[in-house]
């Protein structure tokens, strides 16, 4: 919504008018305002802590009349961080969206049951109206998100819906269960104080989850900064690192490795050439062949790279891949001339991914080879340069998924740089 198109602004206005309609019939004499205020304060605090604090909204939908339940979301939505510009429009949109969604859920719950259905004695009877209300909540939220994505970001509606609804159904169902627990305890003899206890373990888990995602984002930012620095220094690697990361991930998945190792091998592929930061730029961009001395300097880049990343603990075995991805099974590689099983598995994966992308990428000095030809070349070198198991895994992954690297930084570099020897399997650089 940075530069919001006029249709998107009109859409937000329509949803805001719908939200006003949802609350205009508020029965002032029948509303427990203390409950509305308490739930609104809880939602506002939870929204600032973790975002999308839906259990409180759904508890309100189970406990309050629709118009009153819809008001629970308003203070939190208006006070939460906007996440971008225009901030006022984003806050209005979020508040209006949640008012409509909570109102729909409360209406569905009220039509299929009644608010006393959440009394502990009637707990089994609460499941049908609660389940329908949660589903209505998810449907309404996904529909409104689909509309704004289609108008503000020009995402095709079918694609926006396909991404929104299936992904949000399971988390919102869990939030609905927590909201039901809150509502049941709220109506029990223990009262609202007991209902608040439901939120404590959820707040702790959401905080831990948020911490994990912040740490993961920091990892990604570290890797992105390193790769961008390499791309600036050596234009021929532009997009290469990300593609090698993707090919390494495909090999790892085909090998049946655990999810965490797959991610680490993706990091290994992305960072395999980070040591080029320690190589003089004039050598990386030199036109014409390298002298033996210059080649020896460039062949130090795996060791430079290992020095740069060895203190980054989350990389795990990716650090060994950075150091050994130019080793060869027959011992003819560098920097240490390791052979066979002496070469770490992660390095053997990245070596195949690196050579594959080198052959299938177009550069100013060479045209890309077809995938089938690149695979034949890898198979020819399997057993001498490359681990046959990794070559077979890459072939299997490509046969199943094809090769469609989702990389944008893939334009050819300026023609000032000279050819790089490691673009051909077995060539030493």
From TrEMBL:
Residues 405-429 are annotated as: Disordered. GO terms for molecular function: hydrolase activity. It comes from the Bacteria. InterPro entries: Cyclic_di-GMP/3'3'-cGAMP_PDE, HD/PDEase_dom, HD_domain, HD_GYP_dom, HDIG_dom. The chain crosses the membrane at residues 30-46, 52-80, 92-110, 130-152, 164-186, 192-210. It is an enzyme of class 3 (hydrolase). Keywords: Hydrolase, Membrane, Transmembrane, Transmembrane helix. The keyword Oxidoreductase does not apply. Its EC number is 3.1.4.-. Residues 215-410 form the HD-GYP domain. PROSITE patterns: HD (PS51831), HD_GYP (PS51832). Residues 237-359 form the HD domain. NCBIfam families: HDIG. This is HD-GYP domain-containing protein. The lineage of its organism: Bacteria, Bacillati, Actinomycetota, Actinomycetes, Kitasatosporales.
């Amino acid at each position: 919504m940075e530069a919001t198109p006029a249709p998107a602004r009109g859409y937000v206005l329509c949803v805001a008018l719908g939200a006003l309609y949802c609350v205009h019939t508020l029965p002032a004499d029948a509303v427990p305002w203390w409950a509305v205020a308490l739930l609104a304060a809880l939602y506002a605090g939870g929204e600032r802590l973790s975002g999308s604090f839906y259990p409180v909204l759904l508890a309100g939908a189970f406990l309050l009349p629709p118009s009153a339940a819809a008001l629970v979301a308003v203070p939190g939505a208006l006070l939460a961080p906007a996440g971008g510009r225009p901030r006022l429009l984003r806050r209005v949109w979020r508040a209006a969206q949640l008012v409509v969604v909570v109102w729909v859920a409360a209406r569905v719950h009220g039509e299929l049951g009644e608010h006393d259905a959440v009394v502990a004695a009637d707990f089994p009877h609460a499941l049908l109206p609660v389940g329908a209300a949660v589903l209505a909540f998810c449907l309404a939220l996904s529909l409104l998100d689909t509309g704004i994505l289609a108008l503000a970001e020009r995402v095709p509606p079918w694609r926006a819906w396909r991404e929104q609804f299936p992904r949000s159904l399971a988390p919102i169902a869990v939030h609905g269960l927590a909201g039901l627990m809150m509502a049941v305890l709220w109506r029990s003899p223990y009262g609202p104080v007991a209902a608040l206890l439901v939120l404590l373990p959820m707040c702790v888990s959401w905080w831990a989850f948020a911490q994990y995602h912040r740490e993961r984002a920091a990892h990604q930012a570290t890797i992105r900064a390193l790769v961008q620095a390499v791309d600036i220094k050596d234009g021929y690697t532009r997009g290469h690192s990300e593609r090698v990361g993707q090919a390494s991930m495909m090999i790892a998945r085909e090998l049946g490795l655990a999810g965490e190792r797959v991610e680490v091998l993706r990091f290994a592929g992305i960072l395999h050439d980070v040591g080029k930061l320690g190589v003089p730029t004039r050598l990386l961009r030199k036109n014409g062949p390298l002298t033996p001395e210059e080649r020896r300097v460039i062949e130090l880049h795996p060791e430079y790279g290992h020095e740069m990343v060895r203190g980054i603990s989350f990389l795990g075995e990716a650090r060994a891949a950075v150091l050994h991805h130019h080793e060869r099974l027959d011992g003819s590689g560098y920097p240490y001339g390791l052979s066979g099983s002496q070469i770490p598995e992660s390095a053997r994966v990245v070596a195949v991914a690196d050579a594959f992308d080198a052959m299938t990428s177009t550069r100013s000095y060479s045209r890309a080879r077809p995938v089938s030809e690149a695979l034949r070349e890898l198979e020819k070198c399997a057993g001498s340069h490359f681990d046959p198991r990794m070559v077979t895994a890459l072939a299997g992954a490509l046969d199943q998924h094809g090769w469609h690297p989702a990389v944008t930084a893939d334009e050819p570099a300026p023609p000032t740089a000279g050819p790089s020897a490691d673009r051909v399997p077995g060539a030493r650089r």
